Amino acid sequence: MSYHALYRAYRPQKFSDVVGQKHIVRTIQNALKHNRLSHAYLFCGPRGTGKTSIAKVIAKAVNCIHFPTDEPCNECANCQTITNGSNADVFEIDAASNNGVDEIREIRDKVKYAPTTGRYKVYIIDEVHMLSTGAFNALLKTLEEPPKHVIFILATTEPHKIPPTIISRCQRFDFKQISIQEITDHLIEITKQQNMDYDEEAIKLIAQLSEGGMRDALSLLDQVISYSNQKILLEDVHALSGTISNHQLLQLIHAIYERDFSSAIDLIKELIEVGKEPSRIIDGMIMVYRDILVYQKSQKSVSDSLVNHSTFTQLANQLISTHIVEYLFKLNKIQSELKYSNHPELILEIGLLGLADEEPSSDVDNKNEYQIQIEELKAEIKTLKNLIKKVESTGGSGLREPRINKNESQFKMDLFNKSEPIEIHLPKEPDPIILPEHVPQTMLTIERVLSKATREARDHVLQKWTQLNPLIMPEHRDVIVLLKDGHVVAASEEGFILTYKHEPGCKRLLREDNKKVAEQIVAYLFGHPYSFSVMPESFWLEQRQSYIEQKKSGIEPSLKQYSQDLKNVINYNNEEQTKDDSLVDNMIQMFGADLVNIIDG
Hints:
This is DNA-directed DNA polymerase. This protein is an alpha/beta fold. The chain has helices spanning 6-9, 22-33, 51-63, 77-84, 101-110, 133-144, 164-167, 180-193, 200-209, 214-227, 234-241, 246-257, 261-273, 278-298, 304-307, 310-318, 321-339, 344-357, 364-394, 414-417, 446-451, 455-465, 477-485, 503-510, 512-526, 537-552, 566-591, and strands spanning 40-44, 90-94, 121-126, 150-156, 171-174, 197-198, 231-232, 487-491, 495-500, 531-536.
């Protein structure tokens, strides 16, 4: 006998074999038992959830010799002929290929004839939504008032395409997706019947990939059994389905967390080379991030293979839940962009490296900015409280004169009887900050920073950046403001990169006197000279992409560098000075030299 696929061999032959549709099975069994059958049923739901299988079980039950019964016997002639598809009273019609008016008219003409061997004629119309408008109209009258010996069972995955006039003439049953646990239990039972050893995590992965459809789960299981060697392993399922192992996904997520660009690029390249689709990589990352978030919140609902992995527990302790939520939204956006891109690999790399490079919106920058504002407000409130206390202690200026009792003890103190001056101690001003001696910085290239860039180094620079306050060093206020306007995008032990949205910001900081002070301020912040490179944001993004592409090609990156040459800056300053001078000349000509007072600074 020829081999039967698992989804055919294990197709439900009675109601007790149906998995995951208890609400439908119970309703139909009660109707069969009490002979309260409808003339038409509409089965709606996702593919592979049992619509056609239950329809055929109904056909057997109504024609079984033991009718009325809630289960067909599967032994009588009617049951057996319906099972093998040779019964003349049960018609299974595919509406996708028989969707014209003529086919439905033929059904309408034949329904009036009585069944030959059974009790009912049963018409099972699969994918009924594919019928044309004319075919629906031809079916309408027959469906409304069929002969007593006819039952129509319509099955569809898209009920919204069926006219309301058809739906209103049927008993509608909505099939739901089968749960992962129910599919897993059923697959384990079948695997045991097939005398196959199995890894439970592999069976669970098959159930997850089936997306609630038992037929898809059985088809994938059949394929894995053919591929495996005596035992179904998790690696076999990954190899056949194109999914990625948890170990590889955790490595990629850890590289993103550590800002390890080189490792992230190598991992992506390795996955692509072995045939993993970019969409599968994003799917896997979404699931792992989701499991990390669930583990942080509830310490459960995560597979054992993840919990027992040291990298998983490490990430669960290090990642912030709000950041994970933001990463999930970004990954979902990348997933949608992959569907419409002609270069999905490029979108994947840029998206994941952008995920690694960009700090979440709720990160240290905003927190420190808000913290500074809060501290300033606290200082102002404290000053106001002190002023209020002084006013209250002195009775207030311009307030109603209080009643004074000269006999009270405070008026008998020497303070009011002697004319000695009262000493007022003003708060001591803080000592001025002396910047360290200027040390010219060495040449710092972009590739030198990126090759050794780490998350810790960047976080360290950002932490120091929050200490920049123009009020502490008012004589260098302009340079500090320029530094705070920059955005630290990458850092290593050798130095860091500072970008500006517009090129004039770079040139102002690179002015000879400003840059010298900026280098001294940075050395003061870090306690030692620390090199940095300044460039526009657009230039940085171009060179970072060039770095990624060169890394991917397996060559040592060599990038363009933004000119830190002071000559270009001097020219720019001269040009600005010329503009300023021309403006002054115009003002003098308009109002006269005696009315124009030039204030420098």
